[in-house]
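User: Can you help me understand a structure? I only have the sequence.
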Amino acid sequence: MKKQSLLFVSPKKVSVIEEEIPKLDDNKVLVRSLVSAISPGTEMLVYRGEIPDNMKLDSTINGLNQRVNYPIKYGYSIVGKISACGKKIQKNWKNRLVFAFHPHESSFLATLDELMPIPYDISPDDASLLPSMETAINLVMDGRPVIGEKVAIFGQGIIGLLTTSILTRIPLSSILTFDKFRLRRDKSIQIGANHSLDPTDSNNIPLRKIGFSEVKFDLTYELSGNPEALDQAINITGYSGRLVIGSWYGNKYSNLNLGGKFHRNRIRIVSSQVSTIDPQFLGLWDKKRRLNFAWKLVKKIRPSSFITHRFPISEADKVYRLIDKNPEKTIQVLFTYES
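Assistant: Let's start by predicting it. Here is the structure, written out as tokens:
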């Protein structure tokens, strides 16, 4: 029996290959994939060859605890249906919808502890965005928003939009978002941002247009993946404000001006990364609790509304070129698989 697997062959080159499915072990199940979500952040760094040399993809996920040496399989958000069970697996698992942190493949073997049953009232499309929701939760927790604060968010891709979606449920004074692309700015307004602006407009953040010329933000997020946005974020963060950096820039560098407002205003910069939880929360929080809460927010927010494209896995080369060359047309893209 064959399966289709996505392979990152080299920077800017992907291939879909056919492989034999290994024999089903007694303690494993066979999952037939339905959809998998493309990460427009880390995954595109892998596609472009922008991962730092000898850095592991993710030491906390089985199968991704490896260094980036092409060719490589990647992806970490797949939804499928269990089609066969090993002898030691209870048969009521068959036909269950499950989520896995697993690369893009049409079928794969897994142990039950590598899978998460999907709640019956959550669609496969919504479930495929569980990792993005978990990331957004982590960003909000690391930012520690306070009632009445003014919050700014750079970047309204899928992570930025989900972060905005959560923040709109907190009684803040205002939420201002920034993105270069109108599609994303319009979506940001639809979900509750007070204003959404183009950060490249006239080489200045156009705050005066909306009466924000003297406003400094209590909390600022940089989620655009663009290191140049950091200086802009610093410039609008107020005295003793927090700047949370959720972007991973890979091997891209940022030239920051730290000699002016940053120094005098005691701005605090926080690195936020979803693989771990801030030690201050570890007394009561672990990854299981965070994932359980992510499922609740997936059900409430329904992130599938941010999906702009769906393509069969066979068109992978076309898909990555679209995201790479025409990001203004995309927010979230899914691969689909034949049932």
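Now, to help you interpret it: The radius of gyration is 21 Å. The longest helix spans residues 287-301. Let me know which part you'd like to focus on.
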